[in-house]
Amino acid sequence: MENLRSNYGDSRVVPIIALNEFLLVPIQIDLDDRTVGLLQQQILEEIEKTRARAVIIDVRMVDIMDSYISYTISETAAMARLMGCRTVLCGLQPPVALTLAQMGVMLQDITIARDLEHALLLADSQSGVG
Amino acid sequence: MFDIAKVYESPADDFDVFIRITREEDIAVARQMAKQLAQEAGFSLADVTKIATAVSELARNIYRYAGQGKIMLKKKTEEKEGPYLEIIASDQGPGIADIDLVMTKGYTTYERSLGIGLTGVKRLMDSFAIYSEVGKGTVVIAGKKGRKF
């Protein structure tokens, strides 16, 4: 982690909004490989800092998600889970969902919600980490 | 015999989009340019997304395994059935010894990966061919037909 920090600096790539016991992460930029790596680091740091119960990643604005981005989000969720934090992904656009399904990408360790409202409901209603 | 070097040397003028992949950032550039070209060619939003995603996978493979290479895109809009787009990913990297193995879903030599790249591209496209020779490089040629509705 220290090593990553020294390479990349302490730049925040996306806004992370603390909402009750949740972290809301709206992704509104194109996720290149460097950005997605920074995002992972940033989310884990915020979980530690805020002791959030769930992270909600909103990908409504993301129009291309390839296998590497999917892998990294999935990996982030697995890491968050080890820190006792649930991850809910919401807002997957239909063409993105279609593409991921056709490629055979599975998003593991993640609860999928239709939209932000649904995500908040799921994050709130389920206790523990699934 | 398929000539890998000849494909790699193809003149840029033969294509609508010609992107050299040398840095990690070029992966995102390639997918954005593919998206734009597919939109211009009249593909549906679903097909635009599939094409851009396939290009992203191919560009990443070039960057990871060969270090550098080229993504070349050509559109054919005069097709009666609708638009058609051809993607050529070409590199002069180490090549692939066992193509059947790399076309197995889940197989990867890269630790941070789902092992879904090439099989994923094949599933997203209508045609897919891969040529590789150890020490000479790899060429992937994939095509996507647009549906009319």
UniProtKB/TrEMBL annotation, chain A:
InterPro entries, per database record: Bact_StressResp_Reg (IPR051932), STAS_dom (IPR002645), STAS_dom_sf (IPR036513)
- Domain of life, per UniProt, equals Bacteria
Entries under CDD domains matching the protein: STAS_RsbR_RsbS_like
Name of a matching Pfam family: STAS
Q: Which residues form the STAS domain?
A: 12-123
Q: What is this protein called?
A: RsbT antagonist protein RsbS
State the organism named in the record: Neomoorella humiferrea
UniProtKB/TrEMBL annotation, chain B:
Q: Which Gene3D superfamilies match?
A: Histidine kinase-like ATPase, C-terminal domain
Task: Report the enzyme's class at the first EC level.
Answer: transferase
The record ties this protein, via InterPro entries, to:
HATPase_C_sf, HATPase_dom
Q: Which domain of life is it from?
A: Bacteria
For this UniProt record, the keywords arranged alphabetically read as follows: Kinase, Transferase
User: Where does the Histidine kinase/HSP90-like ATPase domain lie?
Assistant: 46-147
Name the Enzyme Commission number(s) assigned to this protein.
Answer: 2.7.11.1
MF terms per GO, please? protein serine/threonine kinase activity
Q: What is this protein called?
A: Serine/threonine-protein kinase RsbT
* Gene name of this polypeptide: rsbT_1
